[in-house]
Model the fold of this input.
Amino acid sequence: MNAPTAFPDPKPVPPYKHTPLFPLGADTTPYKKISTEGVRVEKVLGKDMLVVSREALRALSEAAFGDINHYLRPGHLKQLRSILDDKEASDNDKFVAFDFLKNANIAAGGVLPMCQDTGTAIIMGKKGFRVITDGDDEAALSEGARDAYLRRNLRYSQVAPLSMYEEKNTANNMPAQCEIYAEGDDAYKFMFMAKGGGSANKSFLFQATPSVLTRERLLAFLKEKVLTLGTAACPPYHLAIVIGGTSAELCMKTVKLASARYLDALPTHGSADGNAFRDLEMEQEILKMTQSLGVGAQFGGKYFCHDVRVIRLPRHGASLPIGLGVSCSADRQVLGKITRDGVYLEELEHNPAQYLPAVEQALGGEVVKIDLNQPMKEILATLAKNPIKTRLSLTGTMIVARDSAHAKLRERLEKGEPLPDYFKNHPVYYAGPAKTPDGYASGAFGPTTAGRMDSFVDQFQAAGGSMVMVAKGNRAVAVREACKKHGGFYLGSIGGAAANLAEHCIKKVEVVEYPELGMEAIWRIEVVDFPAFIIIDDKGNDFFKELNLG
Done:
């Protein structure tokens, strides 16, 4: 054999200098102490070690997921208020921002969550090398998240695959996504996030080429991709853009952290060592670009985004992953930590009323009232008299159905059966409610993403159903064509204001069919002054097409 029997003498190399990929600055987060239980310091091999009980982890996680479904960061609320004070903001921008502030005030009462989609529980922990637990950290943190969903008026959104095509709701919002890293000294630090499906679905990875890395080409590329975000995830957004990455998955992980402003303390310049950094100049450039798009806070205007984060990462020379993602109006994340002094959670704003204007303004322009208890023919005739962008106030009966219910109704049509009368006689509202608190007619009950039901529209309208649809976000060309062909309408409601709708607009909720589907059952609801806008009309006009979103 010619193979060497031993390694040759190693060539001399310089000393290794480690540069963290994400060199974050000091943590300036305001924290509140929630407990000192379950935390103690013990000597091990002559060193002070922080010993953390399983119950301390569980209790912190439960407190975190309770807080982030009811309270927001002060900075987010200040940004909403600044829209009301901006003379350049459109009436619709202000109308949406004001609704979000009212919604935050209701949610802060601790009964109704701010959004009906109370999210996937995501937990990231960084465990210092002098922290000792019993090793069951993922289970303890997940149990705390589960307990928050079971004990509060939150929705169970997780479905377990029983086979490739059969699923069942887990009925406790588990499993959680839990990731624990070894980092730091004598503290255990956390980020908790409740990520709704709408904003999660607006996470995009593009495998670009290094040829994009010139200013003009990159900005043109990003403008095109930012428009694909649409409005279904409830803008104004906190937009995150990541350029580069040692892998596709690191790029997208960075997008999620940046959208939560977790990486704000990164340096603002790069180095030959390859550290991540924020490009503040590009952040402002892209923010101005989003303001010029005309999309605004859902229905036209300036405020498509509150702010932008742009992170530059090192990359393989042959790869250029580019990631986009958002945090939506339900801007739900909170930091936590466990130190020798106790268990701490980030202090969120418990008094959002301070950001409301002293006197309610007349926002959103003229309002057309629609009686939904008229025959469908008359509802359609009334809507046909008004152009797209018209603001509406809906009162009467709506039928609630989303993905699973639509699939059940399609099965009927494919068997040669007709659609049920209730689906023909009333508008259909795409939504899925959170749990109903005692003494309330409804739990948080805001609109879901309309685009998921696009493929059903032509078939259903041909059968006399879905003639008036109410949901959030832009829709496919096929929906516009179906409405023109069959005389239907799509009405956009304000995404992200679910607590306000439950508190003031939804007066009665009852199951009509398929109760086994849980929150995806078909419901009948009675509404009063339910806000909406005409987005697609029976003539083929589409508000979002004008904004290049249709």
Remarks:
- The first strand starts at residue 31 and ends at 35.
- Residues 111 and 456 are 35 Å apart (CA to CA).
- The radius of gyration is 25 Å.
